[in-house]
């Protein structure tokens, strides 16, 4: 399969953005490819399309599966494993946000709570204790807000985001 110029640009850019977000470039490119193609692909086809090593494709697909962004599927008449991703951008967004929360935010909240519950907290100065408390409150507030937003239907969430932008413009003008 040969990518057309716009698809190629999208896949390459998604790989660049992935590396800026802390995701391996190949992982991001494979996900972008599966998203754009909109159909299951087998590893060899992914390898040939993107021009990356078979082992890299294999490892990248495993990582995407661990993030629940790619699922294994089978195609009638073909014994090879195929891989697919959601075509729903909102579903992908939710999956990524929840995955990052589970991997990054939840452990941080746990450490902050442990720090505040530690008998050694008394050894820290009042300003340090306050900063840890403030960080925990902020992260809990942001987490609660994001969880509520993710429960909304996509069209409702879009309306809220657009409304938020309008409110922000009013605040800036006032």
Automatic annotation (TrEMBL):
Does the keyword field hold DNA-binding? Answer: yes
Q: Which GO terms describe its molecular function?
A: DNA binding; DNA-binding transcription factor activity
Name the keywords, alphabetized. Answer: DNA-binding, Transcription, Transcription regulation
Under InterPro entries, the record lists:
HTH-GbsR_regulator, HTH_MarR-typ, MJ1563, WH-like_DNA-bd_sf, WH_DNA-bd_sf
Per UniProt, residues of the HTH marR-type domain are 22-80
Q: Does the keyword Transcription regulation apply?
A: yes
- Entry's family note: Belongs to the GbsR family.
Q: What is this protein called?
A: HTH-type transcriptional regulator
Source species, please?
A: Denitromonas iodatirespirans
């Amino acid at each position: 399969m040969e990518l057309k110029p716009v698809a190629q640009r999208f896949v390459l850019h998604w790989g660049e953005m992935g590396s800026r977000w802390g995701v391996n470039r190949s992982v991001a490119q494979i996900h972008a490819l599966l998203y754009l193609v909109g159909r299951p692909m087998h590893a060899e086809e992914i390898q040939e399309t993107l021009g990356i090593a078979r082992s890299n494709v294999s490892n990248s697909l495993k990582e995407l599966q661990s993030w629940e962004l790619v699922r294994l599927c089978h195609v009638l008449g073909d014994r090879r494993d195929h891989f697919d991703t959601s075509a729903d951008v909102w579903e992908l967004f939710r999956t990524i946000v929840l995955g990052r929360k589970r991997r990054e935010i939840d452990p941080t909240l746990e450490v902050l709570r442990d720090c505040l519950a530690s008998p050694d907290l008394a050894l820290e100065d009042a300003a340090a204790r306050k900063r840890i408390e403030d960080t925990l409150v902020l992260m809990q507030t942001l987490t609660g807000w994001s969880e509520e937003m993710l429960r909304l239907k996509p069209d409702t969430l879009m309306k809220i985001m657009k409304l938020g932008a309008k409110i922000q413009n009013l605040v800036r003008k006032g």
